[in-house]
Design a protein that fits this description.
The structure is a homodimer of 220-residue chains. Chain A contains 10 helices and no strands. In chain A, helix 2 packs across helix 3, helix 5 packs across helix 7 and helix 6 packs antiparallel against helix 10. The first copy, chain A, folds into 2 domains: 67 residues, Homeodomain-like (Arc Repressor Mutant, subunit A); 135 residues, Tetracycline Repressor, domain 2 (Orthogonal Bundle). The structure holds a DNA duplex (30 and 30 nucleotides).
DNA sequence: CTCTAATTCGAACGTTCGTTCGAACTCAGT
DNA sequence: ACTGAGTTCGAACGAACGTTCGAATTAGAG
């Protein structure tokens, strides 16, 4: 209980921090996280056993526990790192852009680009959202809420700027649905790249949310 | 191995058929399916144990195996029944409607209404789509493909009717994303009913897919 | 090379998993 | 009341689960 668990806790805190340090421990941990992400992606969190993770990362079963104290914490580290990264990138990409429509297009592009470049991680994030409990769950939920609120802000800005009327909540959640569902169907050999899909989804969503208030609702 | 497994196989075939017969066996089975659906919804397929299902349905662990031969087959029965029902309802609702826009609105309304009325079943269908293997998986996949193709047909009709240009595949999958994502956020105490959400999502989607070809893509 | 701390591992822990089996019970038809 | 099929269950199976522990190995500073 003494030294390993302490070391693991310290590094876990370091994991998302500045990259420079990158001790041997940190490198090995992030390798394990990468392999674990693939396994969770393929078999699901509950469906993946610690022995699966051991096989995938080429380390003994017991050896894994030197790097994290439980399977649940491992999932937590994956989700937190993935989510933190996508939020970070979004913020930096939004800097200096002021046109509301353009900002939403950047939001969509950032989300889809990261999603397709890190499909496994994003699938684990979307699909295993309910797998964590209590403390772990709430920490990830906080990041999710921040991300959600950013999107709400972008849409409210557009509404104000263009004088539009629609339910922000439904719009935001519809947009997330469009984008996140991609993990169920995207096939790199058939489908276009992130940029083009972002353009097409952006077209549909933005046109859908702008332009007057209603389509013709004839017939009955 | 003799009589029980035969009986179970026979009734499973009967499960989705005409309602009139409804033997004692069939009634009990569908009660079990209902409870199992709730448990799978809450804990996930892998996360739910047969002992959980036994507790939820008020039947002994061994007793369950009189009604189906494996946990996987139980999930299959749930998915097949849910999917078959929603396709059936859609077909009957589409009869007699010829306006392409109206037909798409019916598709959306049917999907969301059934989704919210059978949240547990639809979540198990959406969220556990990859849990089945081989024969079970392909049978459900066939229904899914049929449902998908119906939606593609509706959109292609709209395109032809209105002379529009967009990627049907991306549009259909975006629409499914918008709709299916609902299981992650819908809260009956906060959110509107299916009819209103269907109207709002229909507005966004249809407006997005109609109206010329492009939004103004100014700025760079 | 030496010594210490960091890292890895084989073996085993107690628990829970999905499934099986034969005995017991319930019920409809006689 | 008797019978046979339909239904339920307690008990147990071997396998797999997440986790632990102490010993063995390795790496880096002196």
């Amino acid at each position: 209980m003494a030294s390993p668990s302490t070391a693991a806790r310290v590094s876990a805190r370091r994991y998302r921090a500045a990259s420079p340090p990158a001790t041997r421990f940190d490198k090995r941990l992030s390798e394990i996280l990468t392999h674990a992400t693939d396994v969770f992606c393929k078999k699901g969190y509950e469906g993946a056993s610690m022995r699966d993770l051991s096989r995938a990362s080429g380390m003994s079963l017991a050896g894994l526990y030197y790097y994290f104290e439980s399977k649940e914490r491992l999932l937590f580290l994956i989700q937190k790192h993935t989510f933190t990264t996508i939020v970070q990138r979004l913020k930096s990409r939004l800097q200096g852009i002021s046109d509301p429509e353009q900002r939403i297009r950047i939001f969509i592009l950032n989300h889809l680009e990261y999603f397709l470049a890190n499909q496994a991680g994003m699938k684990v994030l979307s699909h295993e959202a309910e797998a964590l409990k209590n403390g772990f769950a709430s920490e990830v939920a906080a990041i999710k809420r921040e991300y959600y609120r950013i999107c709400v802000g972008l849409l409210d800005d557009l509404k104000r700027d263009r004088g539009l009327q629609f339910s922000t909540r439904i719009a935001v959640l519809s947009l997330f649905g469009m984008m996140n569902w991609i993990y169920t169907w995207h096939n790199p050999k058939v489908d276009a790249d992130a940029e083009q899909i972002a353009r097409e989804m952006g077209d549909v969503f933005l046109r859908g949310v702008m332009n007057g208030t209603r389509t013709r609702r004839d017939v009955r």
